[in-house]
Amino acid sequence: MAITTNRTVILLFIIATLLALGCVLEAVAMILILVPILAPIALKLGLDPIHFGAITILATAIGLVTPPVGVCLFVACGLAKAKMSEVIRAIMPFWSPRWLC
Hints:
Layout lengths: L6 H15 L5 H19 L3 H16 L6 H10 L3 H12 L6
Helix pairs in contact: 1-2, 1-3, 2-3
């Protein structure tokens, strides 16, 4: 709250934090660590707890397919009997801008 009191800026900061930590933390650990810290901030801003929960789960779900820890990537590799590089190349259009593909 010391950075800004604008709800949109703080919500974008929370989403960016969740997406960045999704690259290095597993989803359950990230939720258990960050929600007790971020939920009071969201409530103080006047965000609906259901809305905040939906945003948190969506950002965490995106983190599940983001390398290097992406748990869903390992499951997809096992089910498809494919290499990690093939799976990452296949999902890249869904989580990166078009100009990176």
